[in-house]
Amino acid sequence: MIIEGPVLKYGDKIDTDIIIPARHLKYTDPNYLAQHAMEPLDPEFYKKASKGVVVVAGKVFGMGSSREQAAIALKAAGVRVIVAESFARIFYRNCINNGLPLITLPYATKEIKEGDVVKVNVETGEVRVGNKVLNGKGITGMALDILKAGGIMEYLKRVSQVPTQGG
Amino acid sequence: MTGTLTEKILSRASGRSVSPGDVIEANVDIVAFHDLTGYHVIEVMEKANMMKIFDKSKIVVAFDHLAPPPDVRSAEIQVNIRKFVREMRLPNFHDVNVGILHELLIEKYALPGQVIVAADSHTTTSGALGAFAQGMGASDVAAAVITGKTWMVVPQPFKVELTGTPGKWVNGKDVALKLLGDFKADYFNGMSIEVHVRNPKAFPTDYRATVSNMGIEMNADALMFVPDQETKDYIKTMRGKEVELLTPDPKASYQDEYTIELEKLEPLVAAPYSVDNVKTAREVSNVEVDQVYIGSCTNGRLSDFQMAAEILKGRTVKTRCIAIPSSYEMFKQAMEKGYIETLVNAGCVVTYGTCGPCLGGHFGVAGPGEVIVSTSSRNFRGRMGSNEAKVYLSGPSVAAATAATGRITDPRDLQ
Ligand code: SF4
User: Fold this and answer.
1) Cβ of residue B124 lying under 6 Å from some atom of ligand 1
2) What family is this protein classified in (chain B) (predicted)?
């Protein structure tokens, strides 16, 4: 799976209260949530992301609460893939369950600039920026199976139990 | 077996001998959700047309985030979940008059050695009793409700040792903030922290719950206290039940270890806008404060109210001060001990609303430009209300001393 797009860049510790503030959590409608994505940090985010973007960020992207709306909001706003130096565990799983791919790439914020156009291989983790090739960690094993199925529930239907293999 | 607590619990839960990095399927002992995530869990189940529950006795539901409902949509969410609970005949349901989910889990349900999964990040709180407890999103929790299983990557174990006895105004919050300040919020990502208390009675379950609660702020997969005599006594007192302890092998090997000498700790705060922006209370003692919040699943327990009452006895608050015990049980005990009366006489708004201000929900949302001192777990931008509010996190002693003076105060400096 290869994904391409222009970069919107953010720093370290982008938490879920930034990605989607708690006052919006009484709803799960993707279109509603998209309009409020990243609101406290970047009120223009919805506009900027609407044509399809790659979010690049620093450490523990998505830290904080378990709100699955964080993944839903970013995806619906137009985020095609997130490349970050590391991810918070719950957020990572929520993205996989909602069909939003993620790449872990150390030094992502040093190697990639706002506005760069990047090409991302979701499975190998390879990120191309112009002539530069950066090697991140793609989605593999169990997480890839779930992403491909379209989320954990679709995956469950297919296998009717959670299998034990993967990586 | 030479396993860590993490390996022992996850080996039992998955039926095979596991090591860090393994991807496993674990049987879960408890699956839980609250109002604000629960409706989403149910939606996911409905959408997939899989309205099945693996074991009703193992599901715990509590209303806390929207309790009592501040608006019509919140009330509607609760109406829908009550209907689900009735139709599914779930026995472990707690309506708006019981408490915050994580507090109820340690008071009534969690046991050492269990695997607990709930739709809320602060599920790590049950690690206070030696359970491997993790928060997950609505879809993962829905899958666990249906199958009784979840997949996970076995984390790298990290050992923390607590030695000695904490000073009078130091509690679990200061240990949590010490770890966040020294290691920063990303260090423990992918690890489980196992805390060994050298002197079990010096660091009671209330304090442990605060540290485990903030394990998620450290981005740890789990933060567990190795269960000991204190764990046994807590469960015996709260539930009248004797429990078996699962403990790590004395020779278990950890990725690394770190020792905190409790008597050397002093009251700490996390300054805006990050949980790892840690300073001593004295370093920021000139900061003027508009509102103090004492409560939440982080620090809303009896010992927290005891500390706050000791400081506020005979004083009058100089900030707005809102105090909310983490459960009805804690409320009743604090009332019997006279702490509630003390806080009310000092001019605090003492109410019973569970989560409330912690997530900028209700019962005291932060306004633009306001400075808040809160005993809760997060000071992210916008967390307690306005994006322009500034939140300092502290334990109950700093919070109460701050309420008494109107600016951030180390309780040792009170006149
Ligand atoms: S008190 Fe705060 S941290 Fe605890 S469950 Fe409620 S909202 Fe979450």
Assistant:
1) no
2) Belongs to the aconitase/IPM isomerase family. LeuC type 2 subfamily.
